[in-house]
Amino acid sequence: MPLMDEKTQNEVREILSVLGKPVKLLVFTQEFECHYCKDTRELIEEVAALSDRITVEVRNFVTDKAVADAYKVDKIPAVTVLGEDDMDYGIRFYGIPAGYEFSSLLESIKMVGTGESALSEATLAFLDDLEEPLDLQVFVTPTCPYCPRAVVLAHYMAMASDKVTAAMVEATEFPHLSNLYHVMGVPRTVINRDPAHYIEGGLPEPMFVARVQDALG
């Protein structure tokens, strides 16, 4: 039984109609001991079927470990959004992008498939001046209406700079990480995997970037 009903399929098809460039969704799963792997794979395959610009490649996290390591994928289910010629922008989804996060998935596909940036000139200038890598982990839950803003902003920053990687992390699927980073509410964006440096809430872009700048010193 499809995860999307006909109405949703038509809406998604319309959203994806703007894609001008190919997008590959690289999915890492395994058959056992992964509660949401099957649903994640099926969801991604259903989305891809709605656009001739999208392809899907499914990899086994265990038997294809070299591929997972190459993309620095360390947990599953995982989805990597790749551009033309398998261009890796550092955009990741860890956990099923369901509920409100389904919109984050579609928006990230759209940004890669159009190459368009919604970032301000000030943010782009900040990213151009980055000298060290910046890693953003945005902890979310599917029922959080404020989380997509933080996820999409982080993904835009990753697409704009090869020094930035950005991941949605579904907090309830990875409780050990939620505990490590003291995630008591979402969205919570952890900067460079340091529990002491984080952003609480879905902040507007200028405030979000200012908090990142503060964390980087």
Descriptive account of the structure:
The protein is α/β, with parallel strands linked by helices. It contains eight helices and eight strands, in the order H-E-H-E-H-E-E-H-H-E-H-E-H-E-E-H. It has an eight-stranded mixed beta sheet. Strand 5, helix 6 (147-160) and strand 6 (164-170) form a beta-alpha-beta unit. Helix 4 packs parallel to helix 6. The longest helix has 14 residues, at 101-114. The termini are far apart. The model has no long low-confidence stretch (mean pLDDT 97).
Can you tell me the CATH topology of the largest domain? Answer: Glutaredoxin
Q: What's the CATH first level of the largest domain?
A: Alpha Beta
Say which CATH homologous superfamily of the largest domain is assigned: Glutaredoxin
Tell me, rounded to a whole number, the average pLDDT.
Answer: 97
Oligomer: single chain
* Number of separate domains: 2
- Main β-sheet, in a few words? 8 strands, mixed
Number of helices: 8
Please estimate the helix content. 25-40%
Order of strands in the sheet with most strands = 2-1-3-4-6-5-7-8
Strand content: 15-25%
Q: Nearest-angstrom radius of gyration?
A: 16 Å
Instruction: Indicate the overall shape.
Output: globular
- Extract low-pLDDT stretches: none
The topology string of helices and strands comes to HEHEHEEHHEHEHEEH
